[in-house]
Amino acid sequence: MSIPFSSPRSTLLRLHQLTRRNILHRHQQTRLASTKPQPPPNTSPPPPPSWAYYTTPLASPFRAYTAMQSRRPLLVQLESTLIIYWIGDLSAQAVGSAGFSEPGSRYEPIRGLRALVIAGICSLPVYKWFLFLGRHFNYGSHLASLGVKICVNQICFAPVFNTYFFGMQSLLSGGTWEETKRRVVHTVPVSFWNSWKFWPAVTAFSFTYLKPQNRPIFAGCFAVIWQTYLSWLNKMAERGEGVSGKVEEREKRVEWRMAGATKKAGLGPKG
């Protein structure tokens, strides 16, 4: 049996031929690619950025708020309520004085301080109330659950809170119990009926689309508007009480003058 043997010369020859074929093949491919018509350059404008491009910067503060609330929920709720009430009172003062442009109008710090005291007292009870409302009145139908939550909130919470708000405003202003009672009677019914025009839609959206930890900040944005209205309504009640008080004082002075004139004329009762 013979073993095939190839000389080094033949091996080099085959290697040279193989290398030459590869070079020719690559050259032909390059020439064919260069003769192909090049596509025209893309002159169309780039696609517009997606919604995430715009919403990401806006969502960052909400994510930060959610993270802080998950760590310290009560403290964050207290701070948020203080800010909301102060901004609401500031807005009410600006609205009542046409942006502080009326003659003699200026910011009243004492009103802002009263708003902060009222906010600090009611912050945590209000927070607990909405947590209670979220855990209860949950039925098989979402619409039924939503309707019951709205009705319970409007019938049970709104009158109590409005009574507390206007009563504290009167007491912190130095009003008597009689004046506080009059303030509550004049303002609570009006604010109660107007709350039905505002809060049911906010409550329905909150309990439908938002997580429990995100509901306070969402409601807080609308609470600024509501607190502006309540502060404005309270100021109107103060002015009304001031006018009625002046009228009563004037009537008393007239009665005293008439009584004095009657005594001088000798028409008074004789002892």
TrEMBL record:
Compositionally biased residues, Pro residues: 37-50
Protein name: Protein SYM1
Localization: Membrane
Region (Disordered): 27-50
Key word Transmembrane present: yes
Keywords from the UniProt entry: Membrane, Transmembrane, Transmembrane helix
Transmembrane helix in keyword set: yes
Organism expressing this protein natively: Friedmanniomyces endolithicus
Annotated InterPro entries: Mpv17_PMP22 (IPR007248)
Membrane topology term: Multi-pass membrane protein
GO CC list: membrane; mitochondrion
Similarity field: Belongs to the peroxisomal membrane protein PXMP2/4 family.
